[in-house]
Each structure stands twice: as structure tokens, then as C-alpha cells.
Design goal:
heterodimer, A: 183 residues, three-stranded antiparallel beta sheet, 7 helices, elongated
Chain lengths: 183, 199
């Protein structure tokens, strides 16, 4: 034992530790085993901790190191834990393993998966409409049927010409078909 | 006296007596780690319960020979962080006096500070309150690294095993945590930054 300048006694351990305080400890410059011993000492020695706190204020929190708790602190802990360990547990795993549940859930999951696939592939109910669109009794462009007279500016609109009446006295009738008009 | 690996092997095989002994051996460290994270002693005790409940259910899957303590401390940290997250809105809503007393300070009965000199206990509670306030400014991994290494005294290698990271990352987390705590202490609690006269 020696004395600090202020008169407090300093143990041999404190004397050994003090040269290591400050930057060597804070900057990880000490060997890991030595640093552990120093921190161990600081946790229990307020005087050395204050020296370290002068360099690193966060050393203040070293005094929070857990100590040995009184047995009374654990009163009820073990009994409560035991009760909780013995509580019947709702076993999700056994539910999944139950064959009856598998027979019920598998088709449901399949239907859900199919529905989701259909929705992704054909978003909205339009996906169910028959492809090919509006049907006319007349041939589409390039197909055999009544010859088309002309196409107008509307996409898909076609003009057909029919001739009615005796030869030499024919009257032309024009029929406009526009597939973009959905009645 | 049965050593840890043997005890763990027996507990994993379903030996309840071995499990109870394991709880008795590990509960203190588990409690303290939880306590540093959540602040409140009662809540930390609940977290410790949850940790051992989780341990009981998963120890059968524990790989023999693997490091046990880092695994246990990891469970503790995760459950404590979850508990802190759940409790935080109530804690923040509570008035400051309550936070210093029950919410962050501890219990009147069964408190771990019981039996310590009254002055020490009060100061320790105050320091704990400050730590809980300031540690909320740290990232969870910085907080965990600081608690395990600087407060609970684990080596850098042990902390790295708990956090499943490298030693250099742990050093980095500790340095960053320390820097933030230092700055905030100087700013908010300058009275704790002046060296006090030794008792």
C-alpha cells in the first residue's frame, strides 16, 4: 500500500493498473488478457475508474458491471420458469403433420395458386374474353369474302360496297365496319 | 462439479436436472446483459425467463461442441432488444421521475442493488438511468458490443462470437459507441466528466 497525493491509500493492484490507464486501454493497445484484467479492476475500483473517466468519460459505465445477486433476488424465478416449461405448448408443427389438415389445405392452396396465376397472366376480367375480338359476317382484310373497298383512318374500320339492282341499273350501298366500336 | 459441456450435453438429451443446473449457472450473466439493454430489473428478469424458455425448446438442436455461451448471449441480446422495443413507448410516455425510479432504475424489493451502501446504490441507479438514455442513441450492434465488452468485460473475441462478426468490427463498434457516449455525456451530463475526488 502507498498513498495517493490526496492521502487515500492505493493498493498494489491499483499501482500495477494505473500506468495502463488512459490511451493504452481506450485504444485497444493492450494485450487482450491484460486489458480484461484492467477492466475487471476498473469495474470494482472507483478511484481507478475515475482516472480512466478523466480520459474516457464513457468509463463511467464500467461501474454497471453485474455483481453477484442475492439469492432472494431469484425467489420465484425458478418456480415460475418451471411452471412455464411445463405449460402445454400449442404445437404448430403437429398441426402441419396431421394428415387430415393436409388433405384440406392442399387443394385450397392449389386453388389459390391457380387463381393467383390467372390474375397475373390475365389481369382483370378482360382476360376471360374470347380472343379475336369483334366478329363480322365479312372477311377481314386479306381473307376471302366480300371485297373491301377501302380502309378509313380509324384503325380496324373497313368500308364495303354492295351493288343492288339489275345490271346496268345498280345502286351502290356502302357498309362501314369498325371493330373498335364495342356495342 | 460437472463441467459446462457435459451439463449442456445432458440438458440437450432431455435431462431436466442438468437443465435446471445450467439455468442456475448462467442466469446471472443472462440477467445482467438483459438488464443493461432494457434498464428495468423486473423486465430483465422476464427477459431472462424467456431466454431459458427458448433455450429449453432449442437446446435439443444445439450442436455438441459448438460454443454455448455466445449462442446463449445472442438469444439474450435479441430478446432484450425486442423487449426494449416493446416497452419503449410506455417508458417514453412515463414522467422523468418515474423513469429514474421504477422504469429505468429498478425495483424497491428484490433489487440487485439491495445490500449495497445507500449512496452507492443511488449513484449506480443514476448512472444506469444515464446509460439507458444515452444508449438509445447507439445502433443496436454498437450498444451490444459496448455492453458485452466494456460493461460485462467479455474479450473482443468473445463479443465477436456473440455478434457473429470479426474482432476488428467489434473494435470499430466499441470505438464508435464510446465516441457517441463521450460526446453526449459532455453535452448533457458535464458533471460526470470531471474527475471526482477519490473516496
Amino acid at each position: 500500500m502507498s498513498d495517493d497525493p490526496d492521502g487515500t491509500s492505493v493498493s498494489i493492484e491499483c499501482e500495477a493498473v494505473r500506468p495502463l490507464l488512459g490511451a493504452p486501454l481506450a485504444d485497444f493497445r493492450l494485450d487482450e488478457a491484460v486489458a480484461r484484467q484492467v477492466r475487471e479492476h476498473l469495474a470494482g475500483c472507483a478511484a481507478c475508474r475515475e482516472i480512466q473517466a478523466g480520459f474516457d468519460p464513457a468509463a463511467l459505465f464500467m461501474e454497471l458491471r453485474g455483481g453477484v445477486l442475492p439469492e432472494s433476488f431469484w425467489t420465484g424465478f425458478d418456480a415460475r420458469l418451471k411452471a412455464r416449461l411445463e405449460e402445454p405448448r400449442f404445437a404448430w408443427a403437429s398441426l402441419v403433420r396431421a394428415p387430415r389438415l393436409v388433405y384440406l389445405t392442399a387443394p385450397l392452396l392449389m386453388i389459390l395458386a391457380l387463381g393467383a396465376t390467372m390474375l397475373v397472366l390475365h389481369p382483370g376480367m378482360g382476360g376471360w374474353r374470347k380472343r379475336g375480338g369483334f366478329q363480322t359476317p365479312f372477311g377481314a382484310p386479306g381473307q376471302p369474302g366480300t371485297p373491301m373497298l377501302e380502309q378509313v383512318s380509324s384503325p380496324g374500320a373497313r368500308v364495303y360496297q354492295f351493288l343492288v339492282g339489275a345490271p346496268g341499273d345498280e345502286t351502290p350501298i356502302y357498309l362501314v365496319v369498325d371493330e373498335s366500336i364495342n356495342i | 462439479m460437472i463441467d459446462d459441456p457435459d451439463l449442456i450435453r445432458r440438458a440437450a438429451a432431455g435431462d431436466r436436472e442438468a437443465f435446471d443446473l445450467l439455468v442456475e449457472r448462467k442466469r446471472e450473466r443472462v440477467f445482467w446483459i438483459a438488464r443493461h439493454v432494457v434498464g428495468d430489473a423486473e423486465l430483465a428478469r422476464d427477459v431472462a425467463q424467456d431466454v431459458f424458455l427458448r433455450l429449453f425448446r432449442t437446446i435439443g438442436r444445439f450442436r455438441a461442441g459448438a460454443p454455448f455461451d455466445p449462442w446463449l448471449y445472442r438469444i439474450t441480446l435479441n430478446l432484450a432488444i425486442d423487449a426494449r422495443r416493446r416497452e419503449r413507448p410506455h417508458r417514453e410516455a412515463a414522467p422523468l421521475e418515474a423513469a429514474g425510479g421504477s422504469a429505468a432504475g429498478g425495483l424497491s424489493a428484490g433489487d440487485e442493488d439491495q445490500g449495497a451502501p445507500a449512496g452507492d446504490s443511488l449513484r449506480r441507479r443514476e448512472v444506469r438511468r444515464i446509460f439507458i438514455t444515452l444508449s438509445s442513441l447507439l445502433a443496436p450492434r454498437q450498444r451490444s458490443a459496448f455492453i458485452l465488452r466494456e460493461i460485462e468485460g467479455l474479450t473482443t473475441g468473445e463479443v465477436a462470437a456473440v455478434l457473429k462478426t470479426t474482432e476488428s468490427t467489434v473494435r470499430n463498434h466499441v470505438l464508435q459507441a464510446r465516441r457517441i457516449l463521450q460526446e453526449e455525456l459532455r453535452k448533457r451530463y458535464p458533471e460526470y466528466c470531471r474527475p471526482r475526488a477519490p473516496r
